[in-house]
Amino acid sequence: MVTPFPLSPSSPFPSPTKFLRSFSSITVTKASPLQFLHCKRLLSVSVTSSFQNPDSDSPPLPPKVQTFWQWLRDEGVVSSKTPARPAVVLEGLGLVAQRDLSRNEVVLEVPKRLWINPDAVAASEIGTVCSELKPWVSVALFLIREKLKNDSPWRYYLDILPEYTNSTIYWSEEELAELQGTQLLSTTLSVKEYVRNEFQKVEEEIISPNKQLFTSPITLDEFFWAFGILRSRAFSRLRGQNLVLIPLVDLINHSPSITTEDHAWEIKGAASLFSWDSLFSLRTPVSVKAGEQVMIQYDINKSNADLALDYGFIEPKDDRNGYTLTLEISESDPFFGDKLDIAEANGLGETAYFDFVFDRPLPPSMLQYLRLVALGGTDSFLLESIFRNSIWGHLDLPVSHANEELICRVVRDACKSALSGYHTTIEEDEKLKGANLDPRLEIAVGIREGEKKVLLQIDEIFKGRESELDELEYYQERRLKDLGLCGEQGEIIFWEPSK
């Protein structure tokens, strides 16, 4: 696998938990460098000796990986002194330390000429026709086209890439059925539909009109393959790089025990004996003993749903369990315009998304937005223009008994409705977790159990608020106190004129 990169608006892939919000852009979370290899000569690599894993008890490397390593040696990227090498590990392939490595020590350095990214596409034969495409789409076409060419400069790298992962985008209908009721299922189906639409568009606008460039047919399955490779293996933390695949570095695996994401650097250095270039510098975030895997943290902030969609694994940690609650101001609300103005003035909109994480506080601004949406009746005076600059501060605290009761009921009803959509209980999932499950079923069980835990916790929070409704202090009481007309116990203080 490869180093992940953070989801951001400029990223080329759809963010799992946010995908349904917009199809206009895609976000990638992890990345390795996708760039054009400026290699003018035809590839001719021969393995002169069998490459052995550092641990003599571990399985030998597949021939294609040995050939890949030899190619990197011929390119001057690695040598016998390189601190880490490919090895067969529990995850499949990984990078294993050849000697003890201290924290922040350089493990690998890969020159920019070997990266695969939009610049590589621009420098290739299809660069002109792909110039207006989304970056990830252009790189996906480039990857597929290079994979179909026997003389591709990246032949030996492409040969070691997996045909699929356990990402939910590759699951069968039967496997997806195990995600019934989960947000991950709806997100996965939306992502798959998005990719299909992008393929249809690029096939009509780019592939079919340019058959002299795309001499071999490109299928939807191949497009999904490229999408999955980019989603799981691309880096985006390098300077000016939103999407880049980097051969060899993307073999590095994820460790949940690593709590820092400081591992990727772009530096200037010697690309060969007589030239300098930008280098991708991989450094180990923790100290590593010889024979151990060099690993990184893909993304501290990703939920298990994100990890399952992007990489095809989850972590057995409660703080990776999440659920996104969607709230909106109804267009039929008589105060729709006023409420929308207030929401937008405070960084929200007609629809707002709040990401819950297990055992963490309520998302910021959620209660204010809920109270705003529920405002009505005698509370609607707060929507008047004289309160426009102060209303968000008022909404930070309970407005009225009726308003607070309504938001509790709405949230609890939403949780109960969501919980009724799963076909198993938490107890049934717990029993399954003890069995020797297929990796994909294990992911499904973990996802649906995690979502249910979060929903139950949200319900419990608002159940607790319901039980305290009679004890809360509301706007009118606070206002009377500010005016000195209400005592500390809530009693009304009557003013008597002096005689």
UniProtKB/TrEMBL annotation:
<keyword id="KW-0934">Plastid</keyword>
<dbReference type="InterPro" id="IPR011192">
    <property type="entry name" value="Rubisco_LSMT_MeTrfase_plant"/>
</dbReference>
<feature type="binding site">
    <location>
        <position position="311"/>
    </location>
    <ligand>
        <name>substrate</name>
    </ligand>
</feature>
<dbReference type="GO" id="GO:0032259">
    <property type="term" value="P:methylation"/>
</dbReference>
<dbReference type="GO" id="GO:0030785">
    <property type="term" value="F:[ribulose-bisphosphate carboxylase]-lysine N-methyltransferase activity"/>
</dbReference>
<keyword id="KW-0809">Transit peptide</keyword>
<feature type="binding site">
    <location>
        <position position="298"/>
    </location>
    <ligand>
        <name>substrate</name>
    </ligand>
</feature>
<protein>
    <recommendedName>
        <fullName>[fructose-bisphosphate aldolase]-lysine N-methyltransferase</fullName>
        <ecNumber>2.1.1.259</ecNumber>
    </recommendedName>
</protein>
<dbReference type="InterPro" id="IPR044431">
    <property type="entry name" value="SET_RBCMT"/>
</dbReference>
<feature type="binding site">
    <location>
        <position position="237"/>
    </location>
    <ligand>
        <name>substrate</name>
    </ligand>
</feature>
<dbReference type="InterPro" id="IPR001214">
    <property type="entry name" value="SET_dom"/>
</dbReference>
<feature type="binding site">
    <location>
        <position position="233"/>
    </location>
    <ligand>
        <name>substrate</name>
    </ligand>
</feature>
<keyword id="KW-0949">S-adenosyl-L-methionine</keyword>
<dbReference type="GO" id="GO:0009507">
    <property type="term" value="C:chloroplast"/>
</dbReference>
<feature type="binding site">
    <location>
        <position position="250"/>
    </location>
    <ligand>
        <name>substrate</name>
    </ligand>
</feature>
<feature type="binding site">
    <location>
        <position position="265"/>
    </location>
    <ligand>
        <name>substrate</name>
    </ligand>
</feature>
<keyword id="KW-0489">Methyltransferase</keyword>
<dbReference type="InterPro" id="IPR050600">
    <property type="entry name" value="SETD3_SETD6_MTase"/>
</dbReference>
<keyword id="KW-0808">Transferase</keyword>
<feature type="binding site">
    <location>
        <begin position="253"/>
        <end position="254"/>
    </location>
    <ligand>
        <name>S-adenosyl-L-methionine</name>
    </ligand>
</feature>
<dbReference type="Pfam" id="PF09273">
    <property type="entry name" value="Rubis-subs-bind"/>
</dbReference>
<dbReference type="InterPro" id="IPR036464">
    <property type="entry name" value="Rubisco_LSMT_subst-bd_sf"/>
</dbReference>
<dbReference type="InterPro" id="IPR046341">
    <property type="entry name" value="SET_dom_sf"/>
</dbReference>
<feature type="binding site">
    <location>
        <position position="233"/>
    </location>
    <ligand>
        <name>S-adenosyl-L-methionine</name>
    </ligand>
</feature>
<feature type="binding site">
    <location>
        <begin position="91"/>
        <end position="93"/>
    </location>
    <ligand>
        <name>S-adenosyl-L-methionine</name>
    </ligand>
</feature>
<feature type="domain" description="SET">
    <location>
        <begin position="75"/>
        <end position="299"/>
    </location>
</feature>
<dbReference type="GO" id="GO:0016279">
    <property type="term" value="F:protein-lysine N-methyltransferase activity"/>
</dbReference>
<dbReference type="InterPro" id="IPR015353">
    <property type="entry name" value="Rubisco_LSMT_subst-bd"/>
</dbReference>
<keyword id="KW-0150">Chloroplast</keyword>
<comment type="similarity">
    <text>Belongs to the class V-like SAM-binding methyltransferase superfamily. Plant protein-lysine LSMT methyltransferase family.</text>
</comment>
